[in-house]
Design goal:
- The protein is of the alpha/beta class.
- Helices cover 35% and strands 14% of the residues.
- It contains 26 helices and 20 strands.
- Strands 11-14-15-16-17-18-19-20 form an 8-stranded parallel beta barrel, surrounded by 8 helices. A 5-stranded parallel sheet has the order 2-1-8-9-10. A 5-stranded mixed sheet has the order 3-7-6-4-5.
- The longest helix is centred in the C-terminal third of the chain and has 18 residues.
- It is elongated.
- 42% of the residues are buried.
């Protein structure tokens, strides 16, 4: 029965599809609902599976990935991300679960321990649910890798992503998740081979009756019916199916309406010069509606064979803001024409230069510029020391070792479990038990120090809990010292701001100002209490005049001459302390500009440094670090004692926020930021990233 031409159809599916010859590049078991829907509108439907999924020759890697997913010990901050129905089938096959819920049963303990599951779309979600794994995340933006990245939830800290994939998978998802700081572990779950495969992941069930039968075409048969004009439209279900069908000849689809199941497939077709219509949703109804639109549009119904335009020497060059250097400064590669002798805008890529509009005769003069690779007698070529990662490591002038790092931690009175901090993803207020575990971990990872800040349950105007031997900070110091002994340098923050009900670093005078000298007497008592609790190093951070001398004298008089003082010599009043004040539940109203340093002052830092050295400081500190690297450099150049710098809460929060939005590579930004602090002169760095940096150091140096 002849079907109406494109001009006779409307966007009504019944009118648009009646009598149309449609080929769907999908197997019968995956296309059954779509076939029934299209046949209900009068379309003549045939299938061309083209490719079929089968397990890889070596299932060891995907089996190991599945074992990792099922392990409750490593389930916290771990995602299992599944990108296709075939991946679900492969996981079930590896798990020995052809049709039941054994996959869900196998991962049940890990799910209870925190394993989360993501599916790329509804069909994958349904397959996972049938296997006993109900997804926690299905994207709303688009059913694709890009959609999954767009809807990926913000997290306190990156974790591990387990990503079983097709052997032909594009790196979109892996790269996107890695850029957010996640550790992505991949394994080939299945391969696609020409249909029919000898051992497919799923074989279509036999049809119940004659009315259910649908022809399945081999590629050669499909090419024959396409050439005979028997096909009005082809539904492309994956970029791999498109590649298998057209090979090196996109013209085989000339004159055929193309509908792509999603945007990635549409882009793959466009890359071969084949226009197509993408279904709004990869559902039977979404594909039907896209077919109806495409078959009703005369402009899309019959597109010409794709052509590749021949290059022409007179093709205009698009403008660009890139300047090409003169040939005396540039060494051209064998596939790159050298630049003209004056800088001019160009759109040439690194391997292609725009041709001149008029041929240039080859002479001795022009040949030296346009055809010969110049060589210069350069004695020094700094690039020699950048050629490989190993050479760069050897030549590195600054390094970050775990022993250079100090981990600041917060312990809050009355907590049974650690409490996450909203403004500092990945950082917590510790309970006493979790603090001990954190200290043991820091010692095991080789960190240089462990700086403890206490958050009391009750506060008063004098901050008396800071001097109380049974106050939260002193109890925490005893617990940490008992846990790690001398294997880790135990450090105590010596300041009243966490303990006062007004949030200032000292006691207040009658007029509301901070009383410097009255505060010093309390600092001396705090120092003795912290030393007796077991601290190796005290860190007076209140910026009171004379604080180091008073603390040193109090320690010596109380019989603690070996307890060291790390002076916060150059501590600036900064807007970047904001998240820290959540961490210590600060009661501060107003600011601390009358005792912390003015950000406008540089030379004053050296004056403060000298005063602290004269008073007996064993080490000195610059705080904040990243926005005060000039101050750090100044201090490091003249200090005879070790110099520390504090990468503070606001600096930490900015990196985490930018990484969570996908704007920066989290790991690279963390490593670069701390390296820059070391490069500016810090002998040690207080950073909330200390544990992760230690882990990365071990990974990069083969010490894991």
């Amino acid at each position: 029965m002849p079907h109406p031409g494109p001009a006779d159809r409307s966007t009504d599916p019944a009118a648009a599809l009646r009598g149309a010859g449609v080929v769907v590049t999908r197997s019968a078991d995956r296309a059954r609902e779509l076939v029934e829907l299209l046949r209900g509108h009068g379309a003549r439907v045939r299938l061309a599976p083209l490719l079929e999924a089968t397990l890889p020759r070596d299932t060891g890697p995907v089996a190991a990935l599945l074992d990792r997913a099922a392990d409750p010990e490593s389930a916290a901050r771990t995602w299992l991300v599944v990108t296709s129905v075939n991946t679900v089938r492969a996981l079930r096959a590896v798990a020995g679960d052809a049709a039941g819920a054994a996959l869900g049963d196998r991962c049940a303990a890990a799910r209870r321990a925190g394993l989360r599951v993501a599916a790329v779309g509804d069909a994958t979600a349904a397959a996972l649910t049938a296997a006993g794994l109900v997804p926690d995340l299905v994207p709303n933006t688009a059913h694709s890798a890009a959609g999954l990245l767009a809807d990926w939830p913000p997290e306190p800290a990156p974790g591990t992503v387990l990503l079983p994939l097709s052997a032909r998978a594009r790196p979109t998802l892996e790269a996107g998740l890695s850029a957010r700081g996640h550790r992505v572990l991949t394994a080939t779950a299945y391969e696609t081979v020409p249909w029919p495969a000898p051992a497919p992941l799923a074989r279509a069930a036999p049809a119940d009756g004659a009315d259910d039968h649908v022809d399945e075409l081999h590629r050669s048969e499909l090419l024959t019916v396409l050439a005979a004009g028997e096909v009005d439209a082809v539904v492309l279900t994956a970029p791999s199916h498109l590649a298998e069908l057209v090979g090196d000849d996109p013209a085989v689809l000339a004159g055929t309406v193309l509908v792509a199941i999603g945007e990635p497939t549409r882009l793959a077709a466009a890359g071969r010069g084949l226009p197509s219509v993408a279904a709004a949703l990869p559902t039977p109804e979404g594909i039907r509606d896209a077919l109806a639109r495409a078959l009703s549009d005369p402009g899309r119904a019959a597109h010409p064979a794709p052509e590749v335009p021949a290059p022409t020497p007179t093709t205009p060059v698009p403008p660009s803001t890139t300047l090409v250097a003169p040939p005396t400064l540039t060494t051209a590669s064998p596939t790159t024409a050298a630049a003209p002798t004056t800088p001019t805008p160009t759109a040439a890529t690194p391997t292609t230069a725009a041709a001149p509009t008029t041929p240039t005769p080859t002479t001795e003069e022009t040949n030296s510029v346009t055809h010969r690779t110049p060589r210069y007698d350069l004695v020094s070529r700094p690039r020699r020391l950048r050629t490989t990662p190993a050479v760069r490591r050897l030549a590195a002038q600054t390094r970050v070792h775990p022993s250079d790092l100090i981990l600041p931690v917060f312990v809050r009175e009355g907590l049974a479990e650690p409490a996450p901090l909203g403004s500092m993803p990945g950082v917590v207020q510790h309970s006493m038990d979790s603090l001990r575990r954190a200290a043991a971990e820091a010692a095991a990872k080789g960190l240089g120090g462990f700086m403890v800040f206490g958050v009391p349950a009750e506060r008063d105007p004098e901050g008396s809990a800071g001097c109380d031997p049974e106050g939260i900070l002193n109890r925490a110091l005893r617990a940490v010292r008992a846990e790690v002994g001398d294997d880790l340098v135990v450090m105590a923050d010596l300041c009243l701001d966490e303990f006062t009900d007004h949030g200032h670093c000292g006691v207040l005078a009658d007029d509301g100002t901070v009383d410097n000298d009255a505060t010093l007497e309390i600092y001396g008592r705090m120092a003795v209490a912290q030393a007796e609790a077991g601290a190796h190093v005290l860190g007076p951070s209140g910026m009171m005049d004379g604080q180091v001398g008073v603390i040193r004298s109090a320690l010596d008089e109380a019989g603690h001459p070996d307890v060291a003082v790390l002076a916060y010599s150059a501590k600036y009043s900064s807007a970047f302390y904001g998240p820290f004040r959540e961490a210590v539940d600060s009661q501060l109203q107003g600011d601390r500009r009358t005792y912390q340093m003015d950000p406008a002052n540089r030379r004053e830092a050296l004056h403060e440094l000298q005063l602290d050295l004269d008073e007996g400081a064993d080490m000195v500190m610059v705080k904040p670090a990243m926005s005060y690297l000039d101050i750090l450099r100044d201090v490091a150049e003249v200090s005879p004692v070790p110099v520390s710098a504090y990468q503070i809460s606001g600096e930490y929060a900015m990196i985490e926020a930018a990484a969570a939005n996908g704007w920066i590579d989290r790991r690279a930004a963390i490593q670069e930021s701390v390296l820059s602090i070391r490069r500016a002169g810090a002998d040690s760095v207080l950073t909330y990233f200390a544990v992760e940096l230690a882990d990365w150091f071990r990974d990069e140096n083969g010490l894991s």
